[in-house]
């Protein structure tokens, strides 16, 4: 797993714009190299704000949206269209504004599918398996970029500290009793996150500073799930100054003056 690169941005607004610019070029580069790309989205404030900045960035058409497979690292187990679903936030912020191939947008099934949360997790795992190729050497595709927000408790996706999902070997699992509402969620597990070529942890605000410090300083993943947010090729912690305020100065590199 790759050692994190930490980039610190002046504030949340600059961070969201910088993440958007990085996403556009990263996806365009991946598509130039391979003809298509896999992107894993996250929910949360800064995650969705970054997607809105992609929509607002005139360069976003450098991405061939019809040759992009879009997944979610986690989803709230709510009906399709529910405003609290991460999918709904992503569609409103970006996906409704670009020409994606509906066959390549992979929302996590909600209760309106008639599936239980466990069945929805299994269904998503099967969809991931079908999209994986022999060269991925595993049950999920080698995602080009996997975005993660960060909770104040150092959760990523819906992997909350000391919950069973952190020990689960399956690619995707249901979560019950999540401390962040809603309580029932579907989440990729750490092995699935770590299958990504690049993992980006995106965090803004003072309330995330403690979690950032723990995630960067080698804590155990059962107490600090974000410590397991590592990509095979590259790991980026994309932060604003407030979220970076508790890490040792030698760890963070200013990305903006
Ligand atoms: O379903 C969710 O809520 C997200 O997937 C979750 O992992 C989120 O990214 C973090 O909780 C950060 O959220 P904020 O950026 O809003 O603090």
Automatic annotation (TrEMBL):
<dbReference type="GO" id="GO:0005975">
    <property type="term" value="P:carbohydrate metabolic process"/>
</dbReference>
<keyword id="KW-0378">Hydrolase</keyword>
<feature type="domain" description="Glucosamine/galactosamine-6-phosphate isomerase">
    <location>
        <begin position="11"/>
        <end position="232"/>
    </location>
</feature>
<comment type="pathway">
    <text>Carbohydrate degradation; pentose phosphate pathway; D-ribulose 5-phosphate from D-glucose 6-phosphate (oxidative stage): step 2/3.</text>
</comment>
<dbReference type="Pfam" id="PF01182">
    <property type="entry name" value="Glucosamine_iso"/>
</dbReference>
<dbReference type="GO" id="GO:0017057">
    <property type="term" value="F:6-phosphogluconolactonase activity"/>
</dbReference>
<dbReference type="GO" id="GO:0006098">
    <property type="term" value="P:pentose-phosphate shunt"/>
</dbReference>
<dbReference type="InterPro" id="IPR037171">
    <property type="entry name" value="NagB/RpiA_transferase-like"/>
</dbReference>
<dbReference type="InterPro" id="IPR006148">
    <property type="entry name" value="Glc/Gal-6P_isomerase"/>
</dbReference>
<protein>
    <recommendedName>
        <fullName>6-phosphogluconolactonase</fullName>
        <ecNumber>3.1.1.31</ecNumber>
    </recommendedName>
</protein>
<comment type="function">
    <text>Hydrolysis of 6-phosphogluconolactone to 6-phosphogluconate.</text>
</comment>
<dbReference type="InterPro" id="IPR039104">
    <property type="entry name" value="6PGL"/>
</dbReference>
<comment type="similarity">
    <text>Belongs to the glucosamine/galactosamine-6-phosphate isomerase family. 6-phosphogluconolactonase subfamily.</text>
</comment>
<dbReference type="InterPro" id="IPR005900">
    <property type="entry name" value="6-phosphogluconolactonase_DevB"/>
</dbReference>
